[in-house]
Amino acid sequence: MSVITKIEVQKKNQDRVNIYVDEEFFMAIYKELVFTFNLKKGDNIEEDHLRQILKDEMFLKGKNKALNILSKANQSEKKIREKLVSDFEEDVIDEVLDFLKKYNFINDNELASKIVTTNVNLNKYGKNKIKQNLYNKGIEKSAIDEAISEIDVDAEFENALYLAEKRYARVKNEDPKKAYAKVANHLAYKGFNYDIIKSVLNKIFKSDYNDDY
């Protein structure tokens, strides 16, 4: 049976310690695990004990990496998983994600709601573009559907009208049909559906050009 012969705090990282077994370097772990497992110089270390220490070490590494990622920007569960998969086993990732969800570090529903609010109020996007943005963030479908369903129809129409009027101001001196097409294409690019675009164009152009849209 092996014996812990030295526990040494790392000089460059005070949160990590080096464990020596039988006078030789054995592994580096987070300092908190020394207290969790009550490790002391002179302790015998068995295989099962070692396996649990290593398991907890990998969990802490995964958790800290995930928290570091989240400190820079909110992420969906899927995106966090993708960022961990190259360094950690599936069971470790699952444990990390369970921790993050338990303490609300990740929440796809809340993230989707925040993105929708920003996209509607600041970017003035339509539902189609917002939905695509949510998919690109890796947010689960149920959270996307719920967030999209909360978008106010009148607010979406007003956003489309605002964008259309701005674009129309730039093209109003062009050939009317070309101007019409440019405004329509701009609204489609911004993610508005056919019915909203049609209604907005009717309001701005008050003509029959929209028969071709």
UniProtKB/TrEMBL annotation:
Keywords: Cytoplasm. Modulates RecA activity. Signal peptide: none annotated. It holds the Pfam family RecX_HTH2. Residues 63-100 form the RecX first three-helical domain. It comes from Terrisporobacter hibernicus. It is found in: Cytoplasm. The gene is recX. This is Regulatory protein RecX. HAMAP family: RecX.
